[in-house]
Write a structure and sequence with these properties.
alpha/beta; 17% strand; eight-stranded parallel beta barrel; 12 helices
């Protein structure tokens, strides 16, 4: 292991002064999944597996998650100023919802049968340091809501790294008591580089802590190594709004390199046609559509909707 000083490598040297060796991830060798379709989940209990089977489609082993928890740090967010109007039309085309309990209880019809990944952290907004969070939702409340998973984000290398890891460890421990999986979100601070070395470190850390699946960013090159080094499923964040074809290309490349789904928000609800966009992304995740094929589908659906208006 490389010697560190305040979290920084000293000249890339390993112990004993040797140059750091290149890691061998064997990305071409898929991880075996004996007894259950999701990597790293074979030894979980029935309740955990059942909840994960609601989030991830057992037929494809993948998921399209719709993230609309932005308001807990950003307030009214472009594209979801009215959650009650903007989100329900998208729900039939996704596998899972990622949101806060406030948005869920006030804006999402309880008749929906979509699994929920419940945002459980709080304590920061865009007006201050985002990594300064605490746990604000009890696991008991997640049970009352019938959440399929709980989540918080960690800032590896950030000012509040220890606190955010403590938050996540608390959720994992409490979730384990009730058979509720935990999603670890690898947030990236302003000063961090979203490369494979950093994202691989962050994903491995939260997996070793006990997360049951991980949300992280796509990167080039080396995303296949990020996936190979993480023993639990990875879904990618959509991140900032991209042109529709670019977002589809990112999703395709991530899936092609081993991600088991996407957790998109702004790249869906800020698209020119959100319903067409989520259906196009779904075709990539579950039907292995190429980006160009998905973009053709998007344009066809968009034209049909415009003609019907």
């Amino acid at each position: 292991m490389a010697e560190t000083n305040g979290g920084k490598s000293e000249g890339g040297k390993a112990e004993g002064g040797r140059a750091e060796e290149k890691k061998n991830f064997r990305s071409d060798v898929p991880m075996e999944t004996p007894g259950f379709f999701l990597r790293g989940s074979a030894h979980l209990g029935w309740g955990m597996k059942n909840r994960l089977s609601r989030i991830f489609n057992p037929e494809t082993g993948r998921t399209v998650m719709l993230a609309f928890d932005h308001g807990y740090i950003m307030g009214p967010t472009s594209g979801i100023e009215r959650v009650d109007l903007d989100i329900p039309p998208l729900m039939p085309h996704v596998d899972c919802l990622m949101c806060t309990r406030g948005a869920l209880r006030s804006c999402i019809p309880p008749e929906t049968n979509k699994p929920v990944v419940l945002r459980s952290s709080t304590g920061a907004t865009i007006l201050k340091e985002l990594s300064d969070e605490v746990i604000g939702v009890t696991v008991e409340d997640a049970v009352r809501i019938n959440a399929s998973a709980i989540t918080a984000q960690v800032y590896i290398g950030g000012e509040h790294e220890r606190d955010t890891l403590d938050n996540l460890a608390y959720l994992i421990n409490e979730g384990n008591r009730y058979g509720i999986p935990t999603l670890g979100v690898t947030a990236v601070g302003r000063d961090m580089v979203r490369d494979s070395r950093y994202l691989g470190l962050a994903c491995r850390v939260v997996a070793e802590l006990g997360c049951h699946f991980v949300k992280t960013y796509y990167c080039e090159p080396g995303f296949d190594e990020v996936v190979a080094g993480c023993p639990v499923p990875i879904v990618i964040a959509g991140g900032k709004k991209l042109p529709e074809l670019d977002a589809m290309t990112m999703a395709y490349r991530a899936i092609d390199q081993g991600a088991l789904g996407v957790d998109m928000g702004r790249n869906i609800f800020c698209a020119d046609d959100p319903v067409a966009m989520v259906r196009a992304v779904r075709s990539i995740v579950h039907e292995n559509a190429k980006p160009e094929e998905a973009y053709d589908l998007y344009n066809t659906l968009r034209s049909e909707r415009e003609d019907s208006d």
